[in-house]
Amino acid sequence: MCLAVPAKIVELNDSTATISVEGALREVDVSLIEEPRLGDYVLVHAGFAIHKWDKSEVEELEAIRAATDLREVLT
Amino acid sequence: MKTLVETVDELAGRVGRDVKFMEVCGTHTMVAFRTGLRQLLPPGVCLISGPGCPVCVTGINYIDAAIELCRQPGVIVATFGDLLRVPGSDSSLERERAAGANVRIVYSPSDALVLARECPSKRVVFLGVGFETTAPTVAWAIFRAARDGVSNFSVLCAHKTMPHAMEALLKDQQVEIDGFICPGHVSVITGSAMYRFIAEQYRIPCVVSGFEAWDMLKSVEMLLRQVVEGRAEVEVEYSRSVTERGNVAAQRLMEEVFEECDAGWRGIGTIGKSGLAIRPKYAAFDAARVFEVKYGEAHVNPLCRCGGILRGVYTPLDCKLFGRACTPTNPLGPCMVSSEGTCAAYYKYEGRLAA
Amino acid sequence: MKHDRILLAHGGGGSLTRRLIEEIFEPEFDNPILRPLDDSAVLVMDGKGYAFTTDSYVVKPYFFPGGDIGRLAVCGTVNDLAMQGAQPYWFSLSFILEEGLPWADLQKIVQSIRKTAAEVGVEIVTGDTKVVERGKCEGLYINTAGIGRIQTPNWLGSANAKHGDVVILNGSLGEHGVAVMSQREGIAFQTSVVSDCAPLWPLVKEILSTGVEIHAMRDPTRGGLAMAVCDIANASGVGIRLVESALPVSREVRGACELLGLDPLTIANEGKVIVICRRVDAESVLAAMRRHPLGKDARIIGEVMEKPVGMALLRTTIGGERIIDMPTGEDLPRIC
Asked: Which residues of C touch B40 (CB under 8 A)?
C-alpha cells in the first residue's frame, strides 16, 4: 500500500505532470511538492508526487539497484 | 572489503543474543519476502512484521459498512484494489460486484473525484484506507471536492497513523522488540522526527528504511550497530527520500481536512489518537455522516490468529487455519487476503517451504 | 467463503480458474483424453497422433498495440497445438457479434485472421456467426477450435518434466498484458510496449527439427510464466527453480509493472514459449531457437529439480529464494 515509485517528469502543467517510469507514462498531481520542474525525479504514490529528488539521490538509487547479489563483494 | 551480509553477520555475533526487529509497513513486509531477504539474515536476527498493512488493521465492520453502501441504488463505491477481496462478515466487495453492485477499482483518490464529476447523478464513495502516505492524497480529494462543489463525492474514512500504534506495541507485555524498522514512505510525509519519542522515552533504536532489499539489510545493520553500541536513536537509512521535517504541504493539507481521533485496530483494540476523522467543516464529504453509517459488531472467526500476528506475537505458522482452511483463494482473515498481509506473504513466498 | 457466483477472477487463468475446472467441469467430464488438461487434447486415430484444442477470445479492447482479437484468435489456438508438438491444419471459427459493431472493424479483424492463418498454413474449414443485442457483449467474441498433426515421436505434456531438465524461454516477458492494459479505460497510463502476439509453430518446428527429445512446452498466457511453471511442477511432481536475473524483461515492461504494482511473472504473453528438455540437449535447442526471429533471445531461465515436489521457486537477484506462487487470477480481466 505504501508503494511509491520513482519517476521522471516529462511534461508539466499547472498542478499536474506526466511522469515516466522507464518509459511508462502517467499523469500525476504535483500539488504536494514544491516547484516541480521538467526533468525532475519525483516519488509517486496513489497518483500524487510526494517528494522531489535531486540528482545525487537518483544516482544513489541507481547504484543500489545495480548492486545485485548481496553476497557478492560490493566495491 | 566486506559485504553487507558479512557485516550484519559479524554485528549479530557481537550482540551475543537473539534480537527481534519489527517492521511496520506492509510494503517492507513484501520486499523482505519477495526478495528472499529473510534468508540472508543470520539466525540470531529475527525480522517480525507488525501492523503495517492498513487493510489488515481495518475492522470487518468497515468492510460491512462499505458493502452496505455499495448495495444502495445510485452509489458507486470507488476503492483501491487491495480492499476488493477482503472478507466482511458474510460477503466481500468482489462478490457484491459479481452480484451487480457498482464497485470500481481506482489507482488514486483523484480518479474517484473524476468519477464523481463524470457521473453527477451517482454518489461516489471513496474508501479511505491507508496510513500517512495515503492520507494527504485523500485530503487533497476532499479539499478539491469542497472547493469545486463536487457534492456527490464523499470518503468513508478509516485512515490511521503510526506513532501511537508503535507506542501501543511497546506497552504490550507480549510484544518484544529490540528495534523498529520505520516505514519509509510514511516518513517522507511525516518526517523522521516523529519517532524520536520512541528512542528517547522507550530506549528503542529506530531506523527509517527504504524499499530496496539493500536498504532493508542496511537498516538491519544500522539497528544492530545501535544495539551493540548501546544507543537508542532515530537514524535515517532512506536519506534520499526522508528528511526530519517531512513534506510540509502534505502535512498542512492533512491538518486542514482531518482531525485526530481514537481508532480501532483489528487485533490490537482501540488506540487513542491513532486515527484520522474528517473535520466537521468537511462534513458534506464525510460518507459516514452523509449516509448515516452505523458500524456494527464484527463476527471474527475464533480460530483466526490475525490479531496476534499483527502484533508480532505469532507467526502465521502458529495459526491452525493457515494454509488449510485459510488460503489466498479462500481467505478467512485480513492478513491472508491483503496483498501485503503477513499471512499472504508467508503463503505466497515462504511458509510452505518451512512447513 | 464459498463461491455461489462466478467472479471475474475465475477467468484469470490462475488458481481460481483451476478451482472452477476442478469443482464444476472435471466431475462431469472426466475421461482419459481430457484428464491431462494440457494445452491440447491428444487423439490417436488410425495409429496417427492428432492434437485438438479450443479457445475463446474476449480481449478488450479488440484492437490493441501489436495486434487485434482476430490475430490473437489464430495465434492462441496455433500455439496450444504447437505446445503438443502439432503442426496446425484445420480451424473452426465462431463469432458472437454485438448489434452495432462497425462493419469496417469486423472486416479488419477477419482480414487479420486470414493473414495470420496464412502465416502458418492454417485453413478455416467451418464456422458460425451469432449476433446478440447491443450491450450484451462488447463488440465481439471469437471462438476457434483447431486440429493439428503431432510431429513428435514422444508425448509432450505438463506431466513430463524430469529432474535434471532445464527450462528455456524464447524472449521477453509481459508484453501482451502490458500492451492491452495500456488501452483500458480507468487505468490511464501510456507505454510504447507492443503485444508479442505471434504464432509459435514455425519456432517449434525448428526446435523439433533438432530431433532432441523435448519433455514439455508451454506458452505462458493468462497467469503468465508463474502459472505455467506452477502447473508443470505440480503435474510432473517435480520442483522448478527459476533464476530472476536470467528472466528477460524489457525496460518498458518493468516500468509499467512498477507503476501499476504488478509482477512481470504473472502477466500474459502471447508469443512466448518455455521449453523443457534435458540439460545435455539445451545447446542444440538454443541454437535452433536462435536461428528463428521469435527465438533470437532464447536462454536458459531455470532448472527442474527433484524437490520441493510440486512447487516453483525463484532465486532472487539478491541471492535469496522464494516461492513462485500460483497467481489467483484477478490482476486484470479480459486480457486474452
From this structure: 318-320
In Å, what is the CA distance from C233 to each residue of B355, C23, C324?
18, 21, 11
Q: Which residues contact residue A39 at a Cβ distance below 8 angstroms, ignoring those fewer than 6 apart? A: A8, A9
C72 vs C80: CA distance, rounded Å: 12
Report CB contact under 8 Å: B27, A3: yes
* Of residues C203, C201, C178, the one with CA closest to residue C190: C178
Interval A7-45: pLDDT, tens: 999 999 989 999 999 999 999 999 999 999 999 999 999
Angstrom distance (rounded) from CA C235 to CA C229 = 10
Q: Does residue C334 have a pLDDT over 50? A: yes
What are the beta bridge partners of residue B326?
A: B322
C-alpha cell at C125: 474449414
Q: State how far Cα C205 lies from the chain centre.
A: 17
Searching chain C, which residue's CA lies closest to the CA of residue A20?
Answer: C255
For residue range C186-217, what is the model confidence (pLDDT) as tens digits?
A: 677 899 999 999 999 999 999 999 999 999 99
What's the N-to-C CA distance of chain A in angstroms?
A: 34
Q: What is the ipTM of this complex?
A: 0.89
Whole-number Å distance between alpha carbons of C150 and C155:
9
Identify whether the C-beta of residue C137 lies closer than 8 Å to the C-beta of residue C57. no
Is there a contact between B267 and B308 (Cβ–Cβ < 8 Å)?
yes
Residue C250, SS3 per DSSP: coil
What are B165-220's pLDDT values in tens digits? 999 999 987 888 999 999 999 999 999 999 999 999 999 999 999 999 999 999 99
How far is B19 from chain A, CA to nearest CA, in Å? 21
pTM: 0.90
Average pLDDT over residues B150-162: 97
In sequence order, what are the residues at sequence separation of 6 or more whose Cβ sits closer than 8 angstroms to the Cβ of residue B139?
B253, B254, B256, B257, B258
* Distance, CA of B166 to chain centre: 12
Contact B199, B234 (CB under 8 A): yes
Q: Which residue from B291, B268, B290, B63 is spatially nearest to B166, judged by alpha carbons?
A: B268
To which residue does cell 541471492 refer? C319
Name chain B contacts of C323, Cβ cutoff 8 Å. Answer: 348-350, 352-353
